[in-house]
Every structure is written in structure tokens, then in C-alpha cells.
Amino acid sequence: MTIRALLLGAIAGTAIAPAAFAERGSDGELKVIYWQAPSIMTPYLSGGTKDLEAASLVIEPLARYDQDGNIVPWLAEDVPTVANGGVTEDLKSITWTLKEGLLWSDGTPVTSEDVKFTWEYCTAEGGGCAQSEKFGDVIDVETPDERTVVIRFGVAKPFPYGPFVGAQAPVIQKAQFKDCLGPKAPECTEANFNPIGTGPFTVTEFRPNDVVTLAANENYRDPDKPAFATMTLKGGGDAAAAGRAVMETGEFDYAWNLQLAPEVLKRMEEAGMGRNIVDFGTQVERLHVNLTDVDPALGDERGTAKHPHPFMTDKAVRQALSMAIDRALLTEIGYGDFGKLTCNVLPAPAIYASTANDGCLVQDIDGANKLLDEAGWVRGPDGIRAKDGVRLSILFQTSVNAVRQDYQALIKDWWSQIGVETELRSIDASVFFGSDPGSPDTFQKFFADIEMFTNNFDGTDPEAYMANWICEEFPRPETQWQGNNMMRFCSEEYDALVAEMAVTGDLNERARLAKELNDILMQEYIMIPLTHRGRNSAQANSLGGVIMNVWDSELWNVADWYRK
Question: What is the DSSP letter of 76?
């Protein structure tokens, strides 16, 4: 849905599969496997997809995105626009109306105070909110009555659908989280593991980095849903085992994120028990370059802006690392038809895709060596380059995954050809994408020189996503290591463009700004894109109602899943 169409009021209705069941709980148990196990049940304390998708079973937003990227009402009666009076002419406020009779899973009413509190929770002083960019420019949330929420912005917001839209910005219950503000947020284990929600399921047991067991929410707003009485969300293992569990053994009904070679997926599918489903959204497998020093000797200041990286601050090094990579070979080996070549972190929708960085599509080992020569990085007797006593020796980390380990091995070899020494580290995915501020191994803490992963954003408008890399989004001790600017990149020019995009209404101008933001990141080589990945999962042939959605949580319509 374009900005222009939204503001004119052309909001689509939900496009959800018709129910094929008669009553709640009639289809027994639903078994889903996420081989990256959830570590927490709130997206506000974790940027990991595994966590926000698990949480989406329980806590929900005012509106979300359907499979076509249209905004559709969820807890709200409708989507506010200028045309229907929900967005003011000056674009400085948006008014949402909650559906009548909404209840939390504990039977208490959902009110506008819960919505307001969620904003206060994410913006509380001294806290760290993984989704803080969703609330950019919000200066107040008013509650004129129990069902009305008025969000006020400090500037005109042509796209006012950041707060409480999509799985990354759900509403949480004030009564449960009222004592969890700011620095106390990570300490509220009971609330973080067992949130009271409005979704189709409630948590009955949560074992972090292992399994979540859930039951149908008896207070869910549709009395006939969900079809399943219970749900098990199993974590751990690897993508291959998860795929087999659905498509070969039939042990599970659904397996998420099958990051496997295409021939492996084809063999699994031939067993006849399930099928692979795939669609392309905004996922880009990429490298993040750490601009800070992660030497353990720095203690509590390790990985902070107080200590620049000893060699990654040299743009020539970052550029050479990118030039040495053969993206076509990586994509062919890792994803086949489920991958596309890209030189952008923002590959879609098409209107936002830049062509200014396409030079990365051709590997250039000779050019990378020449660039390092000219920058004064000299090869030593062991072939590793050094300058002023600093060796080009990289610690390269990612999560445990067969495709990612293949990528690591190939990239290490290419970097050796340009005089760069590389140590590989593979971290269990549940830990790597975890939320523990005390762990040294999370992707947000980033105690390495290079790390590799992918993520995506809710919906089709990239305003909030591109705001991930403004200066204040640094993960740091003061934010409990929450934040999405893992590279610790800071640019006044970049921040100014983000602010300009926030107040720009013309779709073509927004596209221009988004491309400029993407190009800064790419041309500074602080993020190095590798592959535009399809989002693929496995669905049992006996499971109905599934609609793959690359613009929101993959479990967005789980209330409509049923047993055939």
C-alpha cells in the first residue's frame, strides 16, 4: 500500500483464509519448530526474529500487514486515514479506536491506557527498547476514553503507521508490566516469559532457548478460533533437522526459516509429507563491520564508541573486504532459486532499490589488493598485511547454520587472497539472537570484528528500518545492549536524511531518500550485502490456512490454521 493510497483512505480488508473448522480447539495440537529457539517472549527486549515471532502468538498490534503488504486492522476497528478523519490534516496526530469488548487473556478489558503505557515502556529513561525506532517523533499518547488512542507527533508524519503497527510493535498489558520500566525491564522474568496477551494463544510454559508450550486463549475475540487447543513451539537443532521433521517424518506441522541448499530442500519435499513455501521480501544476508574496538582488555568500555576499531575505521579495508567477495557463487551455493544478487541492504519494494552500488556484483581480488597496497597495508612474511604494527586479523562471527558456515569458509578463503587473516566463530543461534544483556555472544553486543546475519522489517515502508542506523541506535551498556546499529556507525548526514524522510510525504521523494540512506551505508562499507534471501519454510500437507507473509510475522494468521 503506497503512502498516497493510505492517506486517501484506500485501506485493504484482511485477506485471510476462510475458517475450515467449527469450534475452538477442535483440531488438537499444533506443532511448530523454530530451530532458532526463542529466548524471550517480547520484541521490546529482543531484535531477534525468532523472539518477535514467538511473541506474536500472544501479544498483538493495533494493525498489521497482510501477505500483500497492505495495512489491515487488528486490535483496532479500522486503519485511520486523512479521508476517514483518523489522521489530522496537518499529519501531526493519528487516532485509533480499539475494537469493542477486547479482553486480555486474563479476562480483564484492553483499554487505551495499555496502548499509552506501551509507548511509555519503550521510551522509559534508562531502559533499552529493541523497537525504539517505531516510536520516532512521538511526543504524547492521549487517552480521551477507554477505546480511543490519540498519538501526537512533534512533526508532520506522512507515514504515521510506525507505532503499534506490525508484529514488532505490539501492545502490552499495563497491569503486568507497570513495575518493569527502564532498567527494570530485563529483570521482569515472569512478564517477559509469560506475557498476558490478546492473541490466539497463551503461554503455559516457557523454557528459554528450548520450547514454548501454549494453549488456546479462552478470551480470544473470535469464539471459534484458534482451531488448535494447544501449540508447541520447539526450538533448537538445525535447519536440516527442522525441514526433515515436517517434510520427511511428519513429526511437526510447520518449520520456520529453512536456510538450506536448494537440492536439500528438493530431496526433502520428494518424501511427500510436506512442501517448501517461499516468498521474497526484504531479507538480505549481509556482513556488519564493527567500528569499535572489542579488545577484552577494555573491560566495560569494550565495544563502545569511546574506543575506535584499530583498522576497521579505514574505509579502504572495509571496501577491500567487500570487493574480494564473489556474491554470485555464494548465492548459487547457498540458496539457488531462493536467492537473488543484491548490493543493497534495502532490496525491496522495487521503488526503493538503488542501482548505485551494482559494482559489488563482480568479484575483484586484484582491485582489492591494489586498494590495500595504496592504503599502506603491507604483506608480512606470513602473507598477512599490517600497518603501523596493526595486523589485518579478523574475528568473523555468525550463528550456527550450514549455509552460513559455507559462506564463512568461502569468505575466509577470499580474504586470505588479499592478505587478511580470519578466525571463524559460530555461535548457537538461540544465544546469538538472544536477549541476555549479560551474554558476550549476542549479535547486538557484537564482540567481534565482522558478523553475519539477516533481518527484515514490518510492512513495505522503510522509514523506521532505515532509522535503525542513526547514532542513538548504538547498542551500549546504558541501553542494556539494545539497539539496532550494531556497527556503531554515526553520521550527521545520515541522521539528517532520516529526519527528512520522516516529514516527507511524496512517495517518489521518500524513495529517493531511502536510496540515499541505503547508498551511504553501502558506500561507506560498514554493511556488506551478500544475498537477497527468499523467506522459506515448510508446511505439512495436513495443515491448512497457512499464508506466507514476508511483511509481518510469519505466524501472523495462526488463528486461522487448521487440520485438513
Answer: B
